[in-house]
Amino acid sequence: MAARPVDTELSLLKAPRRVLTLSEDSQPFGPTAPLEKFRISHVSVDKRLQKAYYDRDLKAADAIFSLYESGILVTRIQRALSIGMFGERSRRRFVPTRWSITAVDSSISLKLVEKLKGNPTIDEFRVYRYSVYDNQYVGLLLPEPWRFEWIEAWFPNTTWNQFTSEPYMIGDYEEYFGRTKYARVGGCYYSTRLAVAEELAREGRQAAAIVLRETYPGYLMPLGVWNVRESIRMLMKQEPVRFDNFPAALKEAMRLMKITPKRWRETSVLISRELTQTKITNF
Known about the structure:
Blueprint: E1 8-12, E2 21-23, E3 26-29, E4 35-40, H1 47-54, H2 60-69, H3 74-82, H4 97-116, E5 125-132, E6 135-142, E7 147-154, E8 168-174, H5 187-203, E9 208-215, H6 225-237, E10 241-243, H7 246-255, H8 261-267, H9 269-276
Parallel strand pairs: 7-9
Antiparallel strand pairs: 1-4, 2-3, 5-6, 5-10, 6-9, 7-8
Helix pairs in contact: 2-4, 3-4, 4-5, 5-6
């Protein structure tokens, strides 16, 4: 509940061991040593978090969105949820950090999406581009009711593609009324959905969104779901290239990627559908 970082002082019984633990289930964990003493300075409490913590009848989802709307950083809400600070009295639980991150991203984005569904659609096709840490992100917004798709492609010699000579592609999508099963691509799906929904909510519009990611060998170690969320937030802040039809927008998006358009079309449900399905608006 601290409003700001606190001063800490610790004493160790001996010098730390020089080790580094890398795991897909935790953040990099470094040098360790037995602890002798640990002191912490006075904690200045954030009243917004404190209020949510002491309200034992407030559901976790409502607490999360209320704190988000009050300006609390998503990362702070995620840490608080992981130690069981929110929810009805008997239902509070400690949960792994990776679960709390996805739960918060999912919960907030669901509420944002429900709100933006009442907005008019954008009136053009847009292509966004952002590159960081040897990752290429490309987003397409279509002037249609809300749908969403996230696809990532890991090139050979990256963390999740060590043993093949071709990019490994995986993705998932949702229709207007959402999804009922956990996305097979994992937590990045929900962090991306949050970032896209935030930007559309700020604009007061809705759109169908297709977000693509290529990860190259220079991305030596996955930085986590938070990195994808912040990268997509930056992506959506870029000035898009605008088009009046989908084929032209798709051509621009494919020009920015290294993987062939054919493979993207084969992997993406929404791209394939957009290219092949006839709509009433075509007549």
